[in-house]
Amino acid sequence: MEDQLKKIKEKALKEHIPIIMDDTLQEIEKRMKQNNPSKILEIGTAVGYSAICFSKFLKEQGFIDTIERDEQRAKEAKENIKTMGLENKINLYVGDAVEILPTLDQKYDMIFIDAAKGKYPFFLKESLRMLSQKGIIFADNILYKGYVLGDYNKHKQRTAVRNLREYIAETTNNPNLETEILEVGDGLAITKIKR
Ligand code: SAH
Ligand code: MG
After folding, report:
1. Which residue out of 15, 41, 43 has the highest number of ligand 1 atoms within 8 Å of its CB and is therefore the one to mutate?
2. For the whole model, what pTM was predicted?
3. pLDDT, tens digit, for every residue of 40-79?
C-alpha cells in the first residue's frame, strides 16, 4: 500500500498537480495523531493524494467527504481511492464546491481547505457552519508564495491574494476563533473554536 501511495504521489508531482507538501502534511498529521478525527471534509481533492494520507488517521467508522470540480482529476481520484481499497472511507463529490458545500449539512471535526484561493472566504463561512465544537480547520496555501504578507498588489493573482488576506483577517479578528499561521509549505492556517 505504501508503494501504491508513493506511485500516486510521484505521478501527481510529475504532472505538476499541486498536492500537499511534505512539511504541511507532517504538521497536519501531528495534530491528527493527537486527536483522531472521525469526519473529515476536504475542499479540493485533485487526485486524492491528501485524502488517502489523511484516511490513515481516521477513527474507526470515520469517513472523508472530498470535493473536486475537475472531472479528469476526479476520475483519477476515484481510481486511486479504489486502488487503495478506500471506497468505503472516502466519498468523492464531483462538482464546484461553491455549489456543493451549501447542500452539505454535517458536523466535521476536521476540514481541509485546498482549492480556489479566490473562494477562501466563502469556504471559511461554509466550514464554520459545519465545524464541530472541537473541530479544526486547516487552510493550505494561505501565504501564497509570500505574496499574502508582502505589500504585493500588482499582479494578475491579486484577487487570490486579496481573498487570502480576507481569510486571515476573518479568522484572526473573530473573537470566537483561535488561529495560527504556519510558514510550512505554501503557508498553513490552523483555526479552532475558542473554548
Ligand atoms: N488536496 C489535494 C490537492 C488539491 S489541488 C492534495 O493535496 O492531494 C486543488 C484542487 O482544487 C484542484 O484539483 C482544483 O481542480 C480543485 N478546485 C479548485 N477550485 C475548486 C472548486 N471551487 N470546487 C471544487 N474543486 C476545486
Ligand atoms: Mg495546496
Report:
1. 43
2. 0.97
3. 999 999 999 999 999 999 999 999 999 999 999 999 999 9
Distance of CA 70 from the midpoint of ligand 1 (Å): 8
Cβ–Cβ contacts within 10 Å for residue 113, how many?
26
Q: Domain holding 149: CATH number?
A: 3.40.50.150
Domains: count for the chain: 1
From 9, 53, 68, the mutation candidate for ligand 1 (largest count of ligand atoms within 8 A of CB) is: 68
Q: Atom 19 in ligand 1: which residue has the minimum CA distance?
A: 116
* 44 Cα to the center of ligand 1, angstroms: 3
How confident is the model over 105-155, as pLDDT tens digits? 999 999 999 999 999 999 999 999 999 999 999 999 999 988 898 876 666
Q: Domain range holding 157?
A: 2-193
Q: In what order do the strands lie in the sheet with 39-43?
A: 90-94, 63-68, 39-43, 108-113, 131-140, 188-193, 177-182
And the C-alpha cell for 85? Answer: 481499497
